[in-house]
Design a protein that fits this description.
By secondary structure, this protein is an alpha+beta fold. Helices cover 28% and strands 17% of the residues. The protein has a single domain, classed as Jelly Rolls, CATH 2.60.120.620. Strands 2, 3, 4, 5, 6, 9 and 11 form a 7-stranded mixed β-sheet that branches. The chain starts with a strand and ends with a helix. Bound molecules: 2-oxoglutaric acid. 2-oxoglutaric acid binds next to strand 5, strand 6, strand 10 and strand 11.
Length: 314
């Protein structure tokens, strides 16, 4: 497969990140985050997954040897119990606000930077086909304004056998592409764009791409867990879907539970005082909670509305 277009972080000032992303839909920035900062979060996550029994006994954190007897993924309740602990780590959220990452995202987006408050942690067991994330565009789930961006951040070196992300070059120019309505996945072989590009992505590197850029994970065919974060960014004067600020699903997740063990208040509800352009707006949510096509969607909108009201009354 064709290699990623890449740049070393110190050279970013001399090349336009904006132009690169506008033309190819992505750019791999090498060596942006200090290894120690990424590794510290990795170790905190490994502590959690180790206690959960996801690692083979007798191996160290460096090996990350997965116990395939514990295989689970996003749709499994055993996964969600562990994931909630990871999501509750202050350092998990702090990585999205890392000064080096903020600085680069400002080069792309400008000074009105909104960092979406819910990064996604990917804890990917090896050799499990159903856990491989297939071709999709993030705009399908982030909604709001398509001019938003994802930073994909592996917390350890990620050679091809560990299943790093692949990108379909130039695919952001084709708008929203046809998906299977059940899964949000673009059916095999139908994605529009240029060549698929891929390659090893190391701890400290950050793969940045547009919300309409088609991407997929390569299968993890190693013996190790693959651990990475996806963080989202946009201009706060552009539309943001309020589902990105609350817990719209029917699980019992909440910001209060997330913040329970945090030492600092600095990043709690940091978006509350920004003047955001919500789409749907609160008034539209009131309507949708009554008129959406199914009772399931109506309760989802009602949940978003009630959490928004308590976060941002008025
Ligand atoms: O890490 C993965 O396996 C998938 C990540 C992804 O799809 C994303 O960053 O949007």
């Amino acid at each position: 497969m064709k290699p990623f277009r890449e740049i070393y972080a110190p050279d970013l000032q001399s090349r336009s990140l904006k132009k690169e992303i506008a033309s190819q839909g992505y750019l791999l920035v090498r060596g942006l985050l200090p290894f120690e900062d990424v590794n510290q979060l990795l170790n905190e996550i490994l502590l959690i997954v180790g206690v959960a029994g996801w690692l083979m006994p007798g191996y160290g954190f460096v090996e990350r040897a997965a116990d395939n007897g514990a295989i689970c993924g996003e749709s499994d309740s055993s996964f969600n119990l562990v994931y909630q602990q990871v999501f509750g780590l202050e350092s998990f959220h702090a990585l999205a606000h890392h000064p080096a990452l903020r600085q680069v995202m400002k080069l792309l987006i400008g000074s009105r930077l909104l960092i979406h408050p819910k990064p996604i942690g990917r804890l990917i067991f090896p050799n499990c086909e159903r856990l491989v994330i297939q071709a999709h565009q993030d705009h399908q789930s982030i909604a709001g304004d398509p001019e938003s961006f994802t930073a994909w951040i592996p917390l350890h070196n990620c050679p091809l056998e560990l299943g790093p992300l692949r990108i379909l070059e130039g695919s952001h120019r084709f708008g929203l592409q046809k998906v299977d309505p059940e899964t949000g996945i673009i059916p095999n072989g139908t994605a529009r764009g240029g060549d698929w590009v891929s390659g090893q992505i190391n701890a400290g590197d950050v793969l940045i791409f547009h919300s309409l850029t088609v991407h997929a994970a390569a299968p993890n065919v190693s013996k190790q867990l693959r651990i990475s974060l996806d963080c989202r960014f946009q201009d706060y004067e552009r539309a943001v879907d309020p589902a990105n600020l609350v817990f719209a699903g029917s699980s019992n997740r909440s910001w209060e539970a997330t913040y329970a063990n945090w030492r600092s208040d600095d990043l709690k509800y940091f978006w509350k005082h920004m003047s955001l352009k919500l789409k749907p707006s609160k008034d539209e949510l009131i309507q949708l909670a009554q008129t959406a096509a199914s009772p399931k969607m109506q309760s989802r909108y009602a949940r978003i509305l009630s959490q928004l009201e308590s976060q941002m009354p008025g």
